[in-house]
Amino acid sequence: KTSLMVDLYWKCYAYGDELKPHIEFLDGIMLSSTRDIAPSCVENVDELIERQEKSLSQLDSKRNVVIDLIGKGKVILEHPDKPKFLEGNVKRIEEGWDDTKRKAQERLKLLNETKDAFIGYAENNETIATEFDIAEEEIKKVKKHYNLDAAVADLKKRQDLYNKCDKTISGLFDSINANYTCMAITIPEDKKKILTKEIKAVEAKLEVLGRFKEKVNKIEDLVAALTSFDKNLKAIDAWMQAATAELKDIKDASGGMLPEDRVARTMDLQEDIAAKIEILKSDSATELDLFPQGEKVPADAQAFKDELARITKYCTDLQESTKIECDKYSNDVKFWAEYRTGIKEFTPWLVSAEKAAGEGLSKPADLAEVMALNEKVLTFEKNCVNYLKVLIAAEAAANKMTTHTEADNEVATLKGRFEQVKGSSDTWVKKVDTLAKEWILLDNTVTELNSWVAKDKSSEGENQFSLEKMESTLGELKNIFKEKEKLVENL
């Protein structure tokens, strides 16, 4: 057993001696891959890359040997009586290989990235300078257009150009910063100060994007204002036709409308026109700010100005026409009220008069009733005359209105009914007057006869009158009575 242990330990020590040069090799590669470096230019980086690639190449050349050594060590580790230091040696070569390989690759990766950063930094600075010049030129090309379609199209173009410039320049500046961040891992402090100063100079030039954006924003505001201005003008232009049609309809249909309705519609139209006039006043103020003033005004801008002037004049004229019509219809309301007042006074009387005419006259029984009846028909006739004046006054008020077809028709109907009542009144006056005269004649004849009989007596008390005269008077009295009865019957 002792012989076996001696042999085992000899193998372990021999294995350790075999590992030693390889571990020293790995330590050397590790040291070169982790030491501080400070390249100040891309050439320095190229040299470091070349060295690092050489180190990796050497590592690769040792790979099989190291793997064999690791395998050999693991075989010895399988012996149950192996010494403790053997495990440490195997672990050191195995982990040392992996760590060295990883660190070497990381350093090479960093160096390649640093080289790309050096190259990218230079190229990006050159490119961004060109882009700054392009942005300056594009700013000069931003102009105001007053043709709406052209302005919208140009705005889209300017927005696209700005967005492209912003994206390109911002992207380049981000890349420059990323390049610096990468280079700053390895470059010396004096180089960092130089690059930081250069980056700040580039950053200061970014203000061109702000000026470009400001220019585009102004065009956006202009197009928005033009669009709103154009929309307002077109909306009012379309409304003008409807408003004109409304005023025409009010005029044409006024005969079939109450004056109050005509006034209400014209007042509504006036309010609508006034609202549009206010919008036009606002548009006029906008026009002063939005468009060039003076003698040399671009044709497209002048077209807007002319359209505003045309619409403003049309609306102002429409407002004046509507006011005139409203004033007319306002007077119509007053005349209509006078007319309706007269009609309301006349109509109830006419209805009662028609009722009275339909009922006819009562038949008097004595002279007192005849005289009372005569007074009644004379009063009826007087009322006819007075109420006809009321109707005529109402008709005169209606005739002062702008249109009075409805009133004319109503007055004509009322006059026709009145003529029938007046005809009855005239007949009554004539009949009752004749009856009164006959009745008075009869009454006077009877009184005269009685007086004559009473006076024509002798002192002896005997009647002295002529029989012939008496018969004649009685005959006359009889005829008068018959005529009276006939007149009463004909009432």
How would the blueprint of this fold be written?
Layout lengths: L1 H33 L7 H36 L6 H58 L6 H36 L5 H16 L2 H46 L6 H32 L8 H61 L7 H33 L5 H51 L11 H23 L2
Helix pairs in contact: 1-2, 1-3, 2-3, 3-4, 3-6, 4-5, 4-6, 6-7, 6-8, 7-8, 8-9, 8-10, 9-10, 10-11
Structure, described:
With 491 residues, the chain is mostly helical. It has 11 helices and no strands. Helix 2 packs antiparallel against helix 3, helix 3 packs across helix 6 and helix 8 packs parallel to helix 10. The protein is rod-shaped. The relative contact order is 0.05. About 1% of the residues have low confidence.
Strand content: under 5%
Q: What's the count of strands? A: 0
The percent range for helix content is over 70%
Structural class: mainly alpha
Q: Overall pLDDT, averaged?
A: 84
Rg from alpha-carbon coordinates? 64 Å
* Tally of helical segments: 11
Low-confidence segments, ≥5 residues, pLDDT <50?
A: 458-462
Task: Report how far the terminal alpha carbons are from each other.
Answer: 177 Å
Order of helices and strands: HHHHHHHHHHH
Largest sheet: none
General form = rod-shaped
